[in-house]
Amino acid sequence: MIFEATPAIIGHRGYGSGVPTPPGAGTPVAENTLASMLAAIDAGASWVEIDVTRTADDELVLRHDPTTPGGNYVVDVAAAACGLPRLTEIFAALPPEIAVDVDVKTVLEDAVDAPSRRTGALLLPLLKREARRRRLLVTSFDPALLTFLRDELPGVPLGLLTWLRFPLWQAVPAAAGLGFDAVAVHTGSCGLDHPDTRLRPLEHCVDVAHKAGLETVVWCPTAEAAPVYAAAGFDAMVVNDVPGTLAAL
Q1: Which candidate, 56, 60, 8, 12, places its Cα nearest to that of 246?
Q2: Which end of the chain is more exposed for a tag (fewer CB within 10 A), N or C?
Q3: Is the pLDDT confidence value at 27 over 80?
Q4: Residue 23 near residue 5, CB atoms below 8 Å
Q5: Are the C-beta atoms of 34 and 90 separated by less than 8 Å?
Q6: What confidence category does residue 19 fall into, taking pLDDT thresholds of 50, 70 and 90?
Q7: Counting Cβ atoms within 10 Å, is residue 243 exposed (0-12), middle (13-18) or buried (19+)?
Q8: pTM beyond 0.70, yes or no
Q9: Are 77 and 56 in contact (CB under 8 A)?
Q10: How far apart are CA 202 and CA 224, in angstroms?
């Protein structure tokens, strides 16, 4: 079991993407920073989600976008020059009772770089060490990364991320067939407004996922929509509005 209490509330990139200032905070809190992680926990999140990618010198840093704030590709810039938090620093600073959803952003260069330099290989020793300290979930849109970690890191749950045009009814058999532990879908993949009439009701898709041994995560529901996903049986929600979602539930 990945999530002890359901639905678990996971702070998206920490306190939330597009919700930069917690109530009462005097200064904005940037996403994918330690301050954002701590703000999410203070707001009541039981987990935090972080985006991880690699730099030119094979450091793992927190960044959602493929480019640095200065506009250069992260994979082309050394960690010291890009000004982004290192994953090792975040893991060291977060209390061990805080669970982490590690959303891995692989890079195009992973297709041609030596195996030891690929994002998954760089991440592996950190995850092995961190899995002894805290609850983890590793998610990615890249099934190649997840299958590598599945074989090299047994015991750490893995989740296939999908978005929009890859709907839930396709994501469930894909994640189950690849031997992953969870499926994490965007609200746009869940079929509430999906034009494909073959899509089963949301509750049915979640039920089938559970019967296939998958836990289910939905990302970016609004606070107002959160009760719909909770009623459908989702095990966790990655949200931008932590206090609003908790209040709605």
Answers
A1: 8
A2: N
A3: no
A4: no
A5: yes
A6: low
A7: buried
A8: yes
A9: yes
A10: 17
